[in-house]
Amino acid sequence: MQLRRVAVLGGGPGGLYAARLLKLAHPTCEVTVHEQGDPDTTFGFGVGLAAGTQRRLEAADPDTLRDLAAAGLRHDMTLQVGDDRVRVRNDRLIGVARTELLTILARHAEKAGVALEFGRRRAAGDLDADVVVAADGVSSATREAGPFGSRVDVGRGLYLWCATDITLPDAVFAPVETEHGVFVTHAYPYSGGRSTFLIETDGRTWRRAGFDATTAATPADASDEVSLRFLERIFAEQLRGNPLIGNRTRWLQFRTVHCDRWSDRNTVLLGDAAHTAHFSVGSGTKLAMEDAIALVEALRDEPGTGAAFARYEEVRRPAVERMQELSRRSRLWWESFPSRLDLPAARLMVAYMSRAGNVPLDRLAGTAPEVVAAALEQYAGAPASAGNPTDWVLDRPLSHGDLRFPNRTVDVDGLATLDVGVDDPWSDAGDALVEQARRGGGAGCRITGPPDRAALLTRLDVAERIRRETGALVVVEGSATFRDDLAAGLVSGRTDLVSLTGEAA
Questions:
Q1: 184 is a domain residue
Q2: Distance between CA atoms of 182 and 175, rounded to whole angstroms?
């Protein structure tokens, strides 16, 4: 396709990267980035680029990736609960300052011949262009003004972004119990001698701490200093006595954006304007830059914008929806995180890594064998033998009250059956299932439901609630195809026993 003029709305990572790739693919095309903000003002702190994203950037634009990798900082991951901590090697992940990321992307865009316009708000309909790429963020004015069928789901938990002037040795996940409730940090180092500190909590704890009042009193262009001073005290160990740094930092609830369609006439949505995924899977920059690669390829190969936009969405939507489902499960897990603080750190790390069904137990055993070995010993009370960890987990005996089971796949008679069809185990519908299990009493309950993997993962989460909140013996039914998920559920404390059925439908 021959393009004469392209306008990009938004000077974030996705917009700048799309502009560069478009100019490289269409050298005679006039490509302009319109960013309403000042070039010297940006918000946010560090950005993470995972190994898979780096491979895609390498294939699309090795020059840009080389500079990003040089500016970034690689790190492993530590989970700490009190004095108990475990570490997982993950140094393929790069943390880079958002300011440096944008500087590099802007420099490469200009090097390719892209024009950058700052300090002026532009609307898609006002621009004379063959294609308008709307990369104007989670609050996209383009999306809200257009027929994109958008909807926004708001999470229950609260979080805030801040930073500190130290370089942490690892990414750190650490909960702290206070008189108000539990706060947990997701912190990681990035270039420039700083580390991002993302801190989250549940609504009840947030209100008990008085942060509903401080949020209401904080102007839109300021940071919630009361919250920051409180949080730097409770996370003093991780911060090594350093203060937290805000940048329009305030408590927020995560907004997951969905759109029925990503394009309208000559306008196409990209990145957070079209979709968002929870920060706990580190996906915002990743999705935007991978969107840019797919969009430019479609515009290069298809004969017209309609066909190009259709191909772009056909290619990207499955990957985005998969990431959104992973992030939904991850968000729900973090929102319910305080209930798991009784688990030792190694088992909690297995629970964390398997929370969304993205990291099988055997794969984790391959990348973090010492962590999985510790978790299995904590789970079973004996060191694990060599061989397949899933087989070993399923073959462990269980004592539950006066009951004894030779392994974790024993059929149990006399259990009440709960057929689970909910999407959110912590919703009102999930509460009703817990209450139903509580009223049932008896020997315990068997959790059944549809045969697909997504439904199984949800059953495991429902089972975890019932097990923790009622003390009942819980058996989760699932296809033998998903033995690894069921084994991870056992080690993570989501269920007591499993019932293996035939192959999944």
A1: yes
A2: 7
Asked if residue 471 has pLDDT above 80, the reply is yes
If asked whether residues 194 and 213 sit together in one domain, one would say yes
Is the distance from CB of 375 to CB of 350 less than 8 angstroms?
yes
Q: How far is CA 46 from CA 95, 171, 190, in A?
A: 6, 12, 6
β-pair type (194-201, 158-164): antiparallel
Measured CA to CA in angstroms, residue 414 lies from 256, 335, 453, 466 at distances of 42, 34, 26, 17
Coil, helix or strand at residue 300: helix
Distance CA 373, CA 290 (A): 36
- What is the arithmetic mean of pLDDT over 66-89? 92
Is 463 inside a domain boundary? yes
Domain with 196 in it = 158-239
Write the pLDDT tens digit of every residue in 358-385.
888 998 998 899 999 999 999 999 999 8
pTM here is 0.94
CA–CA separation, 11 and 17 (whole Å)? 9
Q: Is 241 exposed, middle or buried (0-12, 13-18, 19+ CB in 10 A)?
A: exposed
User: Helix H segments across 7-152?
Assistant: 13-25, 51-60, 62-71, 98-112, 141-145
Contacts of 72 (CB under 8 A, 6+ apart): 49, 94, 95, 96, 190, 191
Q: What is the pLDDT of residue 505?
A: 45
Q: Give yes or no for a contact between 255 and 153, defined as CB atoms under 8 angstroms apart.
A: yes
The first and second tokens of residue 210, run together, are 């008085």
Question: What span, in angstroms and rounded, lies between the C-alpha atoms of 142 and 263?
Answer: 11
Categorize the per-residue pLDDT at 50 as very low, low, confident or very high, splitting at 50, 70 and 90: confident
Query: Number of folded domains in the chain?
Result: 3
CA gap 449, 461 in Å, rounded? 13
Structure token digits, residue 485: 């998920």
Tell me the C-alpha distance between 465 and 420, whole Å. Answer: 13
Residues 209, 191: one domain?
yes
CATH code where residue 105 lies: 3.50.50.60
Q: Which residue has the tokens 């475990």?
A: 86
Q: Is there a single domain that holds both residue 21 and residue 115?
A: yes
- Angle between helix axes 483-491 and 369-380 (nearest 10 degrees) is 70
- Whether residue 193 is found in the same domain as residue 284: no
> Which of these, 336, 348, 325, lies nearest to 492 by C-alpha position?
348
Cα three-residue angle 3-118-195, rounded to 5 degrees: 110
Question: Do residues 10 and 113 share a domain?
Answer: yes
Same domain (yes/no): 36, 164: no
pLDDT on residue 187: 94
Do 385 and 329 share a structural domain? no
- Residue 80 forms part of a structural domain: no
